[in-house]
Write a sequence for this structure.
């Protein structure tokens, strides 16, 4: 019986364990989770948790690992690899197959040692406590996480300033040239936008931007991306990678990759590809995008200002869709892309 | 109308929201499986809750897909 060790206690690792068990692997499985808790869902960290809610974030019921014969070692990070063994502070763990799913860590700015990042449940709880009426929150980086932090801050009466070097950061989620609707939602909610601006210095509790603007803040959050957590695995050979440590930084990709490495270990063929999916909750709107809108030569808009669909086409074929407050349409939108992809194949 | 739920296996990501909304209908292993039935409004709620849009609802009489 092959002994599988899954280094990492996040979504990708959990999906790998589930898929191995569901598809018949009856050998030992050990999961090494760096954090002191069972695998949990991270998307709510920048949504429900910042909104002050206390949802159950467990990816599976608390007894899942025990019920399925998966040894879960929490607070036990993988720190190195020797042939056939993963090193941890609690000793070496032998393996026949190694899944590397150790995720990623937030990139920090050296000039801002006191700034916070948002990656773990502790980060999110700490930040949630800061989102109070009148508090000034500066968010460096207007990607999905930064946008959601600004949205949550505004909803709770804090004053958020969103800073990014890109002049149109909302296009990344909404689609090329389509970010203005989301930008307006941020402005309507009272979020101050400093876009196309670079951070040049700090001065006391103020950030100084390249046009001389000063952003005074009680709290600075840096959300400029993540770096794969792979340094410990430099000596790993023949291991299987899944999740954010591969450089993909989306929930859906991590879930698919976790399941995919399990199939590889079991010698099963891969599941068919599906168009990528991302979603975000901001200013009361659920925004979902399926497919990749880069390279679209046409965009069609259908619906109202508060609930609409953007369909992106290239040479007359749909390549992506962005849905705002239309969760019931995501299945149809995705299948339109899959049908088109099958016909093209 | 009576609805029949199906799982689009290519789309399902085993998120498990369906099994929370309708535990008697869906069971999640490596992906979700239909293992029971429930009133139409519960099925619609489950289909809308799926982040991947992987639950397909069919009209039991006509076999045609129905919007959740």
């Amino acid at each position: 019986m092959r002994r599988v060790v899954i280094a990492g206690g996040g979504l990708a690792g959990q999906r790998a364990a589930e898929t191995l068990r569901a598809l018949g692997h009856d050998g030992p499985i050990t999961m090494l989770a760096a954090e002191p808790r069972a695998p949990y869902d991270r998307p709510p960290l920048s949504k429900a948790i910042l909104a002050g809610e206390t949802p159950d974030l467990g990816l599976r019921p608390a007894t899942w690992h025990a019920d399925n014969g998966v040894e879960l070692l929490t607070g036990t990070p993988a720190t190195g690899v020797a042939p056939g063994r993963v090193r941890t502070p609690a000793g070496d763990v032998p393996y026949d197959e190694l899944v590397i799913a150790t995720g990623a860590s937030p990139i920090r700015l050296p000039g801002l040692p006191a700034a916070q990042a948002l990656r773990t449940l502790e980060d999110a709880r700490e930040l949630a406590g800061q989102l109070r009426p009148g508090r000034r929150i500066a968010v460096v980086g207007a990607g999905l996480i930064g946008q959601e932090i600004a949205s949550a801050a505004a909803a709770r009466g804090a004053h958020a300033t969103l800073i990014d070097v890109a002049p149109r950061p909302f296009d990344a989620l909404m689609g090329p040239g389509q970010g203005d609707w989301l930008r307006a939602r941020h402005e309507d909610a009272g979020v101050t936008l400093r876009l196309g601006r670079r951070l040049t210095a700090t001065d006391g509790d103020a950030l100084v931007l390249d046009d001389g603007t000063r952003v005074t803040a009680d709290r600075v959050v840096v959300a400029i991306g993540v770096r794969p957590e792979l340094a410990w695995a430099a000596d790993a050979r023949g291991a299987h990678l899944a999740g954010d440590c591969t450089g993909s930084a989306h929930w859906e990709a991590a879930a698919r990759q976790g399941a995919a490495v399990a199939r590889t270990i079991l010698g099963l063929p891969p599941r068919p590809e599906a168009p990528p999916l991302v979603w975000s909750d901001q200013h009361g709107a659920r925004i979902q995008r399926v497919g990749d809108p880069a390279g679209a030569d046409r965009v069609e808009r259908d619906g109202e200002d508060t609930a609409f669909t953007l369909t992106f086409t290239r040479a007359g074929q749909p390549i992506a869709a962005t849905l705002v407050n239309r969760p019931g349409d995501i299945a149809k939108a995705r299948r339109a892309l899959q049908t088109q992809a099958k016909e093209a194949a | 109308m009576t609805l029949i739920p199906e799982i689009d296996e290519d789309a399902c990501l085993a998120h498990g929201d369906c099994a929370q909304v309708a535990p008697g209908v869906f069971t999640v292993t490596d992906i979700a499986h239909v293992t029971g039935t429930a009133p139409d409004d519960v099925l619609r709620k489950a289909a809308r809750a799926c982040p991947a849009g992987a639950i397909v609802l069919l009209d039991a009489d006509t076999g045609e897909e129905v919007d959740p």
In short: The CA atoms of residues 164 and 251 of chain A lie 23 Å apart. The mean pLDDT of chain A is 95.
